[in-house]
Each structure stands twice: as C-alpha cells, then as structure tokens.
Amino acid sequence: MTQHDSNARQHHTDEPRNPGRRMFLRAAAATAAAASGVIATGTAAGSAAAAPALAPEAAQAAAAAPGGFPDYRYLKTLLTPSQLKYNPTGEIIFPCVRGVYDKLSNPLGRYYLYYGPHDAPGGICLAYGDSLEGPFTEYAANPIVSNNWQPHYKVSHVASPHVLWNEDVKELWLYFHGENGTTRLARSKDGVTFTYDKVVLTTAMMPAGSSETSYARVFRHDLPSRGARYVMLFMLNNQSNHRDIAWGWSKDGRDWTFDQQPLVRHSDVGANNIGGPHLLSRNGSTYVVYNTGKENGGNLLITEVGNDFSRREHLGLFYDSANSAPDNGRSASPSFGTDRGVPYMIYEAGERLQGSIAVARG
Length: 362
Description:
The chain has 362 residues and is mainly β. The protein has a single domain, classed as Tachylectin-2, Chain A. The protein contains two helices and 23 strands. It has helices spanning 19-35, 56-64, and strands spanning 2-3, 73-79, 93-99, 111-116, 125-129, 137-138, 148-149, 153-154, 159-166, 171-177, 182-188, 194-202, 212-223, 228-237, 244-250, 257-258, 274-282, 285-292, 300-304, 313-319, 331-339, 342-349, 356-361.
C-alpha cells in the first residue's frame, strides 16, 4: 500500500557569524582534545605520528575543522515555515538532502530535500531544487507521508525523515518516527510516493526504561565483523531525561541489532542532551556529528568512532552556531551533500520548534 496524501548527493559577507566566540570555542575544543592526548586528526599526541608544534595561526586553522573536515560557514536560509503552504504548526525540523539526478528518471529537480513539522500532526514533506544553495520549491501535495496511514498506523505525529538511496534495490528508503518511541521504514521508486514496509526500532528493543528511540539516520557502512552493511544512529532517552546517541547495525537495512549501551553519552561531552546524529567518513576513519541543546551551547560536536566503531575520541566543536538569526544560538540535525565538488551542510537553524532550514558551505 502506498501513501501520497493529496490534502545531496551524499564565506559569505552577510553571514551571521561571531568570530570572537567562534575562535574561543575552537580553541577550547582543541585544548580539550590535547588534554585527552588527541590532536584534531585523532592522532595520539606524543606518538611517532604526532604532528610537530604549530605556529599560533596554523594551530587555529588546524583546530577549525576537527578530523580534517571543511570549516562550514552559514550561507542562507532555504525554508521558513511561514512561507510554506503546508504549515500546520509553524515549525519545521530535521532536513535530509539527497541528490537524485543520477538515480531517478525525470526527477522534479537535481536535489530532493525532505523535512517536516514535528508537533501533531507532523508530516513528512518534500522540496526540490537544482542546487544545494537553493532555491527549493515546496512540493504541492505535502505531506507525502501523514500521521494516518491505514492499515499500518494512526499516531499523533510523524517526523524526522531520513532518506537513504539503497543501491541494492534501486529505491529511496525513508526512515521516520511516529510516535517518539517508534521508527518506521517506507520505500519508494521515485522519492515521492512511498510504500509502507515495517517498524525497524522501538523502545522495547532497548534497555528497560527507554522512553524515546527517534531521529534515526541510516547509512551504508560495512562492519565485516558483525556481518553488517548498514549502520543506524538515533537519539535515545530514558527515565533520566538525558538524551544520548545510540546505534545499531544491519545486513539489509530492515532487520536490526542494537547496542544496548550508548555510542556517545551526553555526560561524555559535558551536555545535558545530545541528538541529531550524522555519520561522516574522512581520511580513512569514521565520525559522528551531533548537536547539543541550547543550554550547552547549541553547537554541533564531533566524535571519532573509527571504521569499526571501537573508538570514542571526542574532538569537540564541529560547527559553532551564531548568536544572530537564523541560528539564534542553536544549530541541529545536519545533513551533508556535495554539489559540483563544493561541500554543503543543510541543518535546522534556531530555537527548537521555532526555527528554519538553512545551508552552510564548506
């Protein structure tokens, strides 16, 4: 049964940055990494492979992008709730961008940007465009997945779309939550009309007392020792009401095994809550980028987990949210893409449930 509710590819002079604050936080992250015996690339300080001492200017540059990633800078706002036709709650969250120009025949645009409101009724939405810098056009028949999909479910809301191109079956696979304790999978040949598949994650699959298993993202990543080809990252909450990053692995993207211990604990990085995780690979290693709550800076942090997920090297600040609009001290739920060789990060900008979707360029 399908649902189509009619009712990225994987320094701007006006950017609202705070250079002084940015440099301070970068320096603090570098200091924390050095104190733990790790430099920005994850090499143990003092080892034979450790880099020589750097001049202050070079040290600032090295600390600016942990793991060798681009130093992303805000470029523009892409989607604002008040400008959208489908706007039931005045808020949107959790963007996911995918390049479809080389995967689908006759797509609406080169890039599909999935997003949606969180609060009831929520809804999985689509916008499309020919550049990661925009503009993006709202799909006229949003939401493409609603909170009532009979006979499969009827819930208060559905939200947090993450779309994976599954090369094995030449389909776009949509992972989304509804309610907060259930993550579901739907599949599509065109990225617009989806067929419901199954529930892939619930709180019952995690330790007793788990209350939320949501905001999942799935990535193609080989784990030979586990017989797995896919990795899922998601936010886990429990009775403590402190959110962590959890993870699981799968051979096919449908049936999953989940680690019963968090991948990154909020206390590991000095935060009350962390969420919005995204997997990145660079220079032969694997990293997780995630956001903190505004009370702990509202920034994006990065942890190196290694290709086999055995490492836990917390490298500190990945992206410093600006105090001014649209960030207003909070950046969250990043999605990454490359357009004609230029790296971009599309992210949730602003106070939770009061923000917009913005793009930063590397």
